[in-house]
Amino acid sequence: MRLRLALLLLTSTAVVLCRHIFSSSSSSSPSSSSSHLPSSEFNPLSILPRLISRPSTPPSANPQPNPEPNPNQNRNEKLPPRADATYAPPTWDNATLVLLGQRAMLFGGEFHPFRLPVPALWSDVLEKMRAAGLNAVSFYVPWALLEGRPGEVRAEGVFDVAAFCRAAAEVGLWLVARPGPYINGEVTGGGLPGWIQRLRGHPRTSDADYLAATNNYAANVGAIIAKAQINNGGKVILYQPENEYSVSRTLIGFNFPDPGYMQYVEDQARRAGVVVPFMNNDAWSAGHNAPGTGVGQVDIYGHDLAPLDPDCDDMAWEKGALRETQYANHLNVSASTPYAIPDGGVLDYWGGTGFARCAERFNAEQARVFNKNNFAAGVKIFSLYMMYGGTNWGNLGYDSGYTSYDYAAAIAEDRTLTREKYSEIKLQANFFKVSPGYLVATPDLKPTTGVYSPGHEDITVTAVVGPQGSFYVARKTAYRDASPVNFTLRLPTASKGAVTIPHLGGALTMPGRDSRIYVTDYPVGAMTLVYCTAEIFTWQKFDNGQTVAVLYGGVVGETHELLLQRGGADLQATVTRSPEVRTSLEGQFVYAQWTTTGDRQFVRVGNTYIYLVDRNAAYNYWVADTPGQPPLIVNGGYLIRSAALANGTLTIRGDFNRTTTLELIGVPQAATSLVINTTPTPHRADDDGHWLAQIAYSPPSITLPDLSAVAWSYIDTLPERQSSFSDAAWPSANHTFTNNTYLQAPQTPTSLYASDYTFHAGGALLFRGHFTATGGESAVTLHTQGGRAYAAAVWLDDEFLGGWAGNSSASSHRDTFAVRLVPGRAYALTVLLDNMGNAQNALVGGDDMKAPRGILQFNFTMGGGGAAPAVDWKVTGNLGGEDYVDKARGPLNEGGLWAERQGFHLPGAPTSSGGWTAGSSPMKGIGEPGVGFWRAEAELDIPGEQWDVPLSFEFPPIDTTGAQGRYRAVLWVNGFQFGRYISHIGPQTSVPVPEGILNYHGTNTIAVALWALQPGGARIPSLSLRAGTPVLTGRRPVVGVAAPAWTQRPGAY
């Protein structure tokens, strides 16, 4: 995502290119007994000079599954031959895409299927996007999840890219593929797999080993996407290579931007069979790789545009956030292509305010003002990041992000449609579906004041003028202010010249933080709206001869006016209206003025019906595409998914959260009966021929298990802190070299970077150092690094020395612990570290994703100046590292806790022997520092076939003071890691888990790990399941995710 926001987390630094050679520990006094460095990962003062030469590296430390590429080859590679022109890839000009021979506006939203690991629910989200009027879905593909082991790409199950493309095609959405290989996206490593850390080369550069490493992924994923292209009967119409390839660290020592690198990424896609146009996503409107720039250029230029600063704690809109020169900038950068904004959004971090607060800031008002500012700039390819955010389950997120990826999206993380922003987007998207004149209209170079609203400098208007209608986007000049303004307009029209509006007297109103699109010379069937101050939701012409338009004002009490020019058979048609509507006739022209009320009003001119509602009422309307028929307008319902006519039966699929009277406007004349979802439903027709049907809502009683009363089984999952524990089977941390090119020089005799030993997944990392004491040791200092908000704890044999509980900003920390050791005695130092995921690699050359996770430095303080003992280290993370065991849940789902290595988080694990005990629970906790592990079976019986019931696990409120103790908890549901909770950092306390992960008709395995970070232990004061409002649903059936249960793991240690 959005590099502009990512820059807030990064500092300007350089990198070390050379292979690191390790130094020996030396006797020294610690510089500080307790210190930490901020989220920049390391002190920039420790930067070493970049060297020119690079010594060779043993192959075992440098995975290269593919031949070395030449980044300069195939620069002019021709596209593969196209299929039948009927299904040819889109063309384009300076105005729009041309799809299947027709101009098209792409108005879509971002949805990452990997963040909803229930393929059966992908269609639910996609249908909600289509129901909002969107016609496209944009999606990332994270390399890190598909190629956890070098050379082995697994795109199946919950990671099935082809299945997602099929689901979108079935719903009827165009697809914009964004597979990287680098994506940002708040994914660990920005989507790059952790094993990239073992390459000498720098990510996102033309270094040969990095490019070679991308080949296998690019070929496999490119081929999947190619099969789903429009020329092959699919829906993929655009392809984005790379993402935000826009900025580098300073002093990186090589050329940036590198056209050869970008060209190589593009050629990979072409070799895989991708023929659709390439579109990029520049971090801002800087012109990187724009058409005409030569090698590495894309076909269609696009740039990121984040609407507001990401600080969700500040409800104010910052000055200057609303760009007023977007169209002019576009002309300067890429005048030959349609204006494209593929990305732009919000972030929240560990210790942030939470996405619920973000949803208040990035709300319907923000979508109204900022989206319409983009329309005023003539955007024709527009994607909302995110339309549905989802969940960073299974450690897939980067180090600064927590489990939720709700993102303040229009569709909430639990897939509910309770945010007004969804309805606002629905109004906007449906308007453009019936406004082809916008596709050929040209914007002003910048907004104006006093031109279209003379005498009203407090109103700003941007004209988007075209031959098939013009669009005047108006807002308050002081767009941040919440107070309303009264004003008049003066707009040019084709049939009446310049007109002052309102013509019939009074004034228009612009509420604060609002924006309106006023139209002129706008065709509605056989008639023309000469002007209209109410906004248009939709208009449709039906097979019964009626044309119906739905117009909406803002809030109740506003004055609105339209001028309608009659035409065709309606030239002399009778005008009827609601009593509250004032009309005036001038030949073929009909003026109408009204004040918005809570009731629907109308103006009817012959067979043209114009319905007049306020915005809140308009939210209840839907437009359902009906195959073979004009779209159906539906008034009512929580969600209308689709409509279809077959053998005289009109079938509506929809969702309902209350008893509802459904009004169907434009029912096909061939329809004689009605089915709602699968239920035959009585209906009656009103005087205008609209069907009315009553939908009864009688929700089921939902009974959920009490998690404080279920039978929990307990086992200690940190046996490593016991002096008797054997780590003989663990990998030895004995590499005397590393290819890690991150900025600091190693300070240990051997590498203690987890990725050097194939451990990349977030969660627990464990190190055990064995040494024989000399007796002169008075203290041990450890400098650990785990990413933002991480924690670490240290034991000497069975003794807890202490640790770092973490805060919202520190990525590394140094601690010194006093020790008294017996000469000649063997000791084990155990270090537990919480890996928060890898940083993104937003700045090319910074190698931030290589910021190591592990021990950066350790040393003993020796009294009397004696030599420090040698330490032999062992290390572990998830069982198998890159040879991860659970292929279904992916390479990142498991960390290194002992219980995870045994697979005890999976359904069916035995708890009757082997150290398991009963009678405890996470709510009772543990009495000393360490990590406890509990599992229980919970039964559910929820009628998911007819009802969509969102469920979430609820943790206690965040206590930033730490008065109730500092602890961490991890939640697994049927083997899927679905929540990480930090009691004193937060912000997340509610963890939605979807049906399909949860078995709504049977047994569920719930597992919880509790890490007590302080003496005295810790407990989770409360943990419960909560049900949201049941929704009577027409979604497709939910099939549980196929994932293996527990079996004995050979070699588990």
TrEMBL record:
Record's protein name: beta-galactosidase
Protein's organism: Thermothielavioides terrestris (strain ATCC 38088 / NRRL 8126) (Thielavia terrestris)
Compositional bias ranges of the Pro residues kind: 56-70
Residue ranges annotated for the Beta-galactosidase domain, each copy included: 438-621
GO-annotated molecular function: beta-galactosidase activity
PANTHER family per UniProt: BETA-GALACTOSIDASE RELATED
Catalytic activity annotation: Hydrolysis of terminal non-reducing beta-D-galactose residues in beta-D-galactosides
One Pfam match: BetaGal_dom3
Family label: Belongs to the glycosyl hydrolase 35 family.
Region (Disordered): 53-86
Keyword Glycoprotein tagged: yes
Keywords: Glycoprotein, Glycosidase, Hydrolase, Signal
Annotated SMART domains: BetaGal_dom2
Signal sequence extent: 1-18
GO BP annotation list: carbohydrate metabolic process
Top class in the EC scheme: hydrolase
Entry EC no(s): 3.2.1.23
